[in-house]
Amino acid sequence: MPKRRGHTYEQPRELAALPYADHLEPFDGRLVGNGDYDTLLFDGQEFEDEDAGAARFIESAFTSVTFVGGRFRRARFTDVWLHTARWVGADLTESTWADAEIITSAAAGTAMPGAELNRVTFHRCKLDSVNFRAAELREVVFVECTLRDVDFAGATLTGVAFPGSALERVRFDKAKMADVDLRGATSLGLSDGYDALRGATISGLQLMELAPMFAHILGVTVEDD
To answer: What is the pTM of this model?
Structure first.
């Protein structure tokens, strides 16, 4: 798992560097609800409209795997590694992610309301219209990612950082933040939830960019003579 070192982060691991790499067995089949998937390698497969609610994925790796639609409600992903994975329109409501590393992957139109993410790192990923409403994120890092139309409304973010990431039309309405570091974000485009930033750290330049909206929220009229 990449470690946070001040404002720098370790490079993502290769598949061979995983502690369980030598024990991985190729997976060939379909996913089922309540299934146990332990120490498996998912490689190059496409899963369409799979019903894998409450499934458990432990010490497994995913390479060039595509999930189109499908129901993964309350599924658990523990100590997993994903590289060039794609999630399109999948339902991951109340799923749990712990000690996960997600690299050069993409998610579009994916639902993750009420999800729990603990010690998860996204490297160079693209998240488009992902729903994290009421989710809980702890020690989650988005490294050089693009977050477009991502919805964190009502979510709880603790120890979350966005180094080198671009935020475009991101929603933080009624979100709760603690130890959230936005200073490394290359852009900070928010649709709403400016008041939720009270638990975040931003840079002086970002403050200047956000100042007009902060003034609007406070009811301050700014006029030049």
So the answer is: 0.90
Using alpha carbons, select from 48, 37, 86, 45 the residue that is nearest to residue 70.
Answer: 48
d(CA 217, CA 199): 16
Q: Any idea where the domains of the chain sit in the sequence?
A: 4-218
The CATH number, out of the four listed (2.160.20.80, 2.40.50.1000, 3.40.1170.60, 2.40.30.90), of the domain defined by the range 4-218: 2.160.20.80
Cβ-based burial of 11 (10 A; exposed 0-12, middle 13-18, buried ≥19) = exposed
Q: Are 23 and 43 in contact (CB under 8 A)?
A: no
Contact 69, 47 (CB under 8 A): no
Residue 28 and residue 58: Cα distance in Å, rounded?
16
What letter does residue 218 receive in the DSSP assignment?
A: H
**218 φ, ψ to 5°?**
-80, -5
Please write the tens of the pLDDT for every residue from 11-63: 899 999 999 999 999 999 999 999 999 999 999 999 999 999 999 999 999 99
Angle at 223 between CA 220 and CA 225, to 5 degrees: 150
Q: What share of the chain is helix, strand, coil (3-state, %, to 5)?
A: 10, 45, 45
